[in-house]
């Protein structure tokens, strides 16, 4: 295992231990998953948190401004830990590994589902059941709202991708014409 991979694994395990000790694992998992997706999709946020020219105090202030009052204090503290340790660029990888470890503890796999709109709890439950049937695995759904999907959804469970998006269907129609 490479040194980079070992560091990501170590940080993911540390996040898991802290969330477990705080007895807020599921909520922290959701908070960090959403933060990692926001980090990936925002050039401005990524730059602000990874720019070595910005003092650590300023990067910490950015995280506090974004997260304070919107997520659990433990979630904010964990992101601050990563930023202060100079691991902001690795946030998506660390959080994805953390989510995998947490799901694995519950003997489940993570299904990342991208939709154009927010799903309600009933829709997420039905989707989890359908993805479990389709993949033969117990899945835990993490929803990412992604307007580029246009409609429908794209689900990824491990290496399996199920693309039921309007964009995919339009692309299929274009290639058939």
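^ structure tokens above, recovered residues below v
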């Amino acid at each position: 295992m490479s040194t980079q991979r070992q560091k990501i694994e170590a940080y993911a395990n540390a996040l898991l231990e802290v969330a477990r000790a705080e007895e807020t694992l599921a909520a922290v998992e959701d908070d960090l998953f959403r933060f990692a997706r926001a980090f990936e999709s925002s050039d401005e946020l990524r730059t602000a948190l990874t720019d070595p020219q910005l003092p650590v105090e300023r990067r910490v202030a950015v995280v506090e401004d974004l997260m304070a009052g919107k997520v659990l204090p433990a979630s904010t503290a964990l992101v601050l830990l990563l930023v202060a340790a100079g691991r902001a660029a690795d946030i998506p990888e660390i959080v994805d590994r953390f989510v995998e470890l947490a799901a694995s503890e519950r003997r489940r796999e993570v299904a990342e589902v991208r939709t154009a709109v927010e799903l309600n709890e009933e829709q997420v439950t039905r989707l989890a059941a359908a993805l479990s049937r389709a993949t033969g695995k117990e899945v835990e759904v993490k929803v990412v709202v992604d307007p580029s999907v246009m409609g429908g959804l794209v689900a990824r469970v491990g290496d399996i991708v199920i693309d039921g998006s309007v964009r995919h269907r339009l692309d299929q129609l274009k290639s058939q014409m």
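The CA atoms of residues 63 and 80 lie 7 Å apart.
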